[in-house]
Amino acid sequence: MSGASTPISRSGRSTPLHFRDVVHDVIRHYRHEKDSEAHRIFRQSAGHKPKGTLPQTVNPDEETIPGIEHPGSTGVIYCSDRAMANGFSYASSHEWANLGQGAPEVGQIPDAPPRPTSIPLPEDSLEYAPTTGVKALREAVADLYNHQYRQGKLSQYTYENVCIVPGGRAGLSRVAAVVGDVYCSYQIPDYTAYDQVLSAFKRLVPVPTALDAENKYRLDVQQMKKDIRTQGLEVMIASNPRNPTGQVIEGEDLKSLVDTARDSSVTLIMDEFYSWYMYPENEEYGRSVSSAEFIDNVNQDPVVIVNGLTKNWRLPGWRVCWVLGPKNLITALSQSGSFLDGGANHPLQLAAIPLLDPDRVMQEKIALQKHFKHKRDHVLKRLEELGLKVEVPPVATFYIWLNLEHLPAPLNNGLTFFEELLKEKTIVIPGIFFDINPAHRRNLFHSPCHHFVRLSFGPPLKDLDKGLDAIGRVLKKAKKEGGHAFGHSYKKSVDGVHQLDKLI
């Protein structure tokens, strides 16, 4: 079962894929996707053609050298390429509102410690670092987690429980590379890169579960226990706090999830990159969340945590992240890192050590939460004024999961809405990229994420307002001219290539 996907039933449970379902999906595909220019552009992009359906079409962009297959791009990469086709370039990015990039603003914010402006370069740092990372940084990570989440517990993290990796994706890839032939559970919607990980590492057989707005995208732990028994799940991957819905599993729910992993011998891989982005209603700033709080024995409990400087410390360009888990896992990750990525940047690892001081971390957390909560509230208010009330407002992360289904067609799907905003120099991410669909079989129009876009309030406030103004212009145009004004006249990606040639 080399990476084959399982479709989602209406009840949200996984069901086997039968040939009849494939035939019906082909019929639905041609009834819907072929009628949408935005969807045709997406399908024509290398790596995004539907798979497992008939008839197959040949995409010249996917015909490469023998044995090479396009994996398909993540949402941010696809959207950036489409933006370039519409005139976007990083040299002129100030003219655009990028509400798609999954990155926080990196400049100074009120009451936060000063931003790093230089790094030392001792001669030793010019050498390769170990594939597990610099020992002093590993110790700093272990000490910070013990301080934040494990005070008074007998089992404590040490440097041997930490592996430093060059970015979160590298961490996930290292973990995936050492996983055997297993059924891997994940939820929809979730972080777009999981699609590529589950597609590339075919020993992980993906088993999806659909979460819904009625339950505020909460993971049903009781259902998870049942799935473990009936489907033989051995690995579960999830972001917490959750990208893109902005929800979080914490307290007793998170404890129950960790307990389930321990009691059922299921490895729980927790992507905790947004663990500081918590927005309390009672002004109690400085709290964060991690499954590390509920682990009994750090060397026996099958819980793997991936985190780093990218989001919480607002240093995405550093690519200094870590995997936290049992010692024998770290040994395996050292070996997989030796052939996957070779290790993280040595000088930046050294420069990261003082940033993990607990007092500095608390100052960072409080400043971040106050600043980003203000931006969240501002964006939610403006969206509501535009008639776009968010069904499930984010309580964490810096994302808003916006449902468009009440808008007039064809603006009521994420891909078309995205393309129309490109004309207004604004970038968002269509929801289909968060429908983790490794085999790409599912008809886009039947995706549970089809009517959504993800808006990021990570950028500075002026950029957020620029993007919200653009959304307002599109909605005003829809009210004035109707649906016939949308869904066509999109620039093809080849235009973006020509513009890149000019820049080079």
From TrEMBL:
GO BP annotations, alphabetical order: amino acid metabolic process
One Pfam family named in its UniProt record: Aminotran_1_2
Highest taxon in the source lineage: Eukaryota
Residue ranges of domain Aminotransferase class I/classII large in the record: 97-471
InterPro entries found in the cross-reference section: Aminotransferase_I/II_large, AspAT/PAT-like, PyrdxlP-dep_Trfase, PyrdxlP-dep_Trfase_major
Cofactor: pyridoxal 5'-phosphate
GO molecular function, one term: transaminase activity
Region Disordered, annotated ranges: 42-69
Assigned keywords, A-Z: Aminotransferase, Pyridoxal phosphate, Transferase
Family, similarity comment: Belongs to the class-I pyridoxal-phosphate-dependent aminotransferase family.
Name of the featured protein: Aminotransferase class I/classII large domain-containing protein
